[in-house]
Amino acid sequence: MMLKSSRILTLHLINVTKQETLLSSAFARNVAAGSVPTSQSPARLSRKMSTNFKGADRLEGTYNNVWVEYSDLVTEHNALNLGQGFPDFLPPEHVLKALAEVANSNSVHLNQYTRGYGHPRLVKSIAQLFSKLHGHQLDPFKNVLVTLGAYESLFCCIQGLVNPGDEVIIIEPFFDCYKPMTTVAGGIPVFVPLRPNNLCSVMSSSDWTLDPVELESKFTKKTKLLIINTPNNPLGKVYTKDELTMIANLCKKHNVIVIADEVYEWLLYGGQKHIRIATLPDMWERTLTISSAGKTFSVTGWKLGWTIGPDHLLKHVSALHQNCVYTSPTPLQEAVAVGFELETDRLGKPECYFNELPAMLAPKRDELAKQLLEAGFVPVIPDGGYFMVADFSKLNVKLDDSDEPKDCKFVKWLIVNKKFAAIPSTVFYSPEHKSIAENYIRFCFIKEDSTLEKAGEILRDLKHLQ
């Protein structure tokens, strides 16, 4: 049997050798005839062709990412990072303790796959809390989907609902993933900006408003979705009930679904109230609301989020999730569930983390605004979230002559020359509206006081540029 196999292998090698000889001879004849450059040997052609693969057309325009670019710059120059939105302090102790207890438990099941659409204990705790907040009794197994962060929730909502040619209205400034997620689904992003109506030495995020006529002009027969982010990143704008009612009425008039990105829902200052657009009359049936454990419990690295909505919408989002991610980490979901159970009992009390965190952040916000003012910036005081944008146009800084937006050039100048990182605001705008933001850059203030003190030292060094 082995002799027969060896003979077959020998015959195969002889045939391969003959084929290679014929290929080389044919190639030599073509070179002699001048039809193939001598530099393109069969081996070289094979290597060259093997790398010439084209990606999916739907990915065009999505390869560059601002967070990768500026993170690399921060690392290269060892800059103080007030650009990216994550805390540099520990999450609440009871949430960390819950995760440690899960990791050390004797439960076999807590280390294995859990229910694909959300760990039972977590979806139940979410439903219990958010039923109160929405004024609507949620079915934990039909109205809640747990995802790998709010990012995946956004992706699944858009991919699960948008068909090629559908239009998606995106209110600017917007979190930068909204646009590529829309285009990858074959959708057409349609942008409408918030505009400042009170240009003075100190502005509020509430000074940035939508023009109702301009917004209505964006609705067409092709409009499928509208995406709204409140409190807004990067502005910190908290939409009022009147503003949300105006948006809701237009969506009902044109039969449009709303994706409400509400990840900063607990971070409110100065008595602001977070109004959930899903709670407005006749809006539950057309709204998907997205939240984040990372923002809620200051654990951005845990990458857990969830979507709440009616079953007739959520089933499409869930279908995407089950065929993309399938399930989220069980230990993290269990720990977040424990956190929610405790905080639901504390709801409305000062010791509730949902109240404790914004109370801690408010003085940090005020301190950063003071530092920016003294350095010659014009800050926009946020009513929510943990970002602040500021106008740097009064600073006399010589920037290069490239075609990049002014704010991008200024941020790179800050990183390279002052070892201080922010994020340019134009990355949150479409090309046609970047001019609104070209004098603004974004800072993050969910940082230790010591970090903000170091930022103050750098900012004081900019005073002479006024």
Polypeptide structure, described:
With 466 residues, this protein is α/β, with parallel strands linked by helices. Helices cover 43% and strands 14% of the residues. It has 15 helices and 16 strands. It has helices spanning 2-32, 42-50, 66-77, 93-103, 120-134, 149-161, 178-184, 212-217, 241-253, 293-297, 311-322, 330-346, 353-375, 406-418, 449-460; strands at 80-81, 144-147, 167-172, 188-193, 195-196, 203-204, 208-209, 223-229, 257-261, 287-292, 305-308, 378-381, 387-391, 420-421, 423-424, 440-444. The strands form four sheets. It has a seven-stranded mixed sheet with strand order 2-11-10-9-8-3-4, sandwiched between helices. The protein has a five-stranded mixed sheet with strand order 6-12-13-16-15, with helices on one face. Strands 1-14 form a two-stranded parallel sheet. The longest helix is centred in the N-terminal third of the chain and has 31 residues, at 2-32. It is globular. The relative contact order is 0.14.
